[in-house]
Amino acid sequence: MCRSQKKEKKKKYFPALEKIPCPEFIVLYNGKNKYPEYKELRLYAAFKGIEGLKLTDTIPLELTAKVYNINQGHNSEILKKCKTLENYSIFIEKIREYLKKRLSLDKAVKNTIKYCKKRNILKKYLQEHSSEVFNMLFTEWNWDDALEVAREEGREDGIEEGLEKGMEREKLIIAKNLFTEGSTTEFVQKITGLPMEEIEGLLR
Question: Which strands, in side-by-side order, build the sheet including 64-69?
Fold first, then answer.
């Protein structure tokens, strides 16, 4: 064992405080809801029984995350400094534009990939990983997460959860959400397994 290795091994026995790099937590927001340019999120806000608690009070555990809105039209100076981040912002915005034109999600993603390749937006990455990007945004649907969201919406709407009827209602909620995003009837049936007549009935 060399000298440097021995020194590293002995470090765990030293009583002195071992300093570590100062961490910084950053969140990049690109959701569809309105969000400020910049916001700080504090961990203590998630604790129970914090009513009346002040930042000057002793908090057993705290963490601050800096949130930056990277949607188009926000934090342009930050996006200019990072071309990849700016291109990603354009990519997501273009998908939303196609969805607003009533294109299905699969067509919106495919058209966006073509659009960006022609304009040298994430071109190299899309050339090498376009199928992965498509799968990530479209085909890799997490059924368990979808059902959990449906359950939450069902609770808010006063829908009682229960065996087969509850499951069918959850599937109908998911189907409605998919249509809102511009999905085709074929894709909705593939995801939910609902009969085509029930799916078409949602569009009437």
Answer: 25-29, 64-69, 38-42
- Joined tokens for residue 40: 């700080």
**DSSP secondary structure letters along 47-70:** STT-TT--TTS--SS--EEEEEE-
Nearest to 94 by CA among 74, 80, 114: 114
* Angular region, 25: left φ>0, alpha ψ -120 to 50, beta rest: beta
Instruction: List the chain pLDDT tens, one digit each, 204 residues.
Output: 566 666 666 666 667 777 889 999 999 998 888 899 999 998 878 887 766 666 566 777 888 999 999 999 999 999 999 999 999 999 999 988 998 898 877 788 889 999 999 999 999 988 888 777 777 776 544 555 555 555 565 555 554 444 455 567 667 777 777 777 667 777 777 777 778 888 777 776
- Residue 194 near residue 203 (C-beta atoms within 8 A): no
The dihedrals phi and psi of 2, each to the nearest 5 degrees, come to: -75, 170
DSSP for 19-46? --PPP-EEEEE--SS---SEEEEEGGGG
Q: Angle of helix 185-192 relative to helix 196-203, nearest 10 degrees?
A: 130
C-alpha–C-alpha distance, residues 177 and 95, integer Å:
17
Question: Can you tell me the distance from the alpha carbon of 80 to that of 196, in angstroms, rounded to the nearest whole number?
Answer: 47
* 193: alpha, beta or left? (left if phi > 0; alpha if psi -120 to 50): left
Tell me which amino acid residue 75 is.
Answer: N
